[in-house]
Amino acid sequence: DQQVKQNSPSLSVQEGRISILNCDYTNSMFDYFLWYKKYPAEGPTFLISISSIKDKNEDGRFTVFLNKSAKHLSLHIVPSQPGDSAVYFCAASAGNYGQNFVFGPGTRLSVLP
Amino acid sequence: DVKVTQSSRYLVKRTGEKVFLECVQDMDHENMFWYRQDPGLGLRLIYFSYDVKMKEKGDIPEGYSVSREKKERFSLILESASTNQTSMYLCASSLLWESSYNEQFFGPGTRLTVL
User: What DSSP assignment string belongs to B37-96?
Assistant: First the structure.
């Protein structure tokens, strides 16, 4: 059973609008979350992270929200740009600054010009 | 800039062959990881290493082994390749700071096809 779920395999958004990518997790021990972006034929690259002591982290156009009670996090991209078209992976790690992350299956975002 | 390189971008092997996938990082990272990426399953951890000659099993180690003789190099070995090992293989590295989380830096991946 997957501990990190991304229930939308794909998402299409118009350029300039908001993209919202969702991630749900089942392990209540997870306390650190990351988002990675992956272009075709490249490895994933780190985008943004959030610790469980926060409910929001912002970096430019990217904001991650964490709802611990719902075991849910989301990535908001505003405004969306065609260059944001990629696969986005949510990842989580459990306590003691564990070095391992559990990855979700990914959501393919297409930003249409 | 952290750089993680993988020896091949594409590899085609036959069932039963021994396959070596090599990964090198140039940032003196302690941790190194091997994942496989399959559609609908995301990245699944095969093995990781937090020091030279140290290795730990990940979630799906069956059919694989690893070697870390030098800090910068982490090899994934398929002793006898099978068709269900056809996949994208990704190597990653990260620092080992025991007081904070550290993101992983990924190589470009090796797409392995086993016929």
Answer: EETTTEEEEEEEESSTT--EE-S--TT-EEEEEETTEEEEEESS--GGG-EEEEEEEE--
DSSP E strands, A61-106 = 62-67, 72-77, 86-94, 102-103
Mutate to test the interface with A, among B3, B34, B104, B111 (most CBs of A within 10 A): B104
Q: pLDDT higher for B101 or B109? A: B109
Mean pLDDT for B73-90 is 97
**B100–A9 C-beta distance less than 8 A:** no
CA distances from B40 to A6, A103, A106, B14, B77 (A): 9, 11, 7, 25, 24
pLDDT of residue B100: 64
Query: What local confidence, expressed as pLDDT, does residue B98 receive?
Result: 61
| Interchain CB distance below 8 Å, B35 and A34 | no
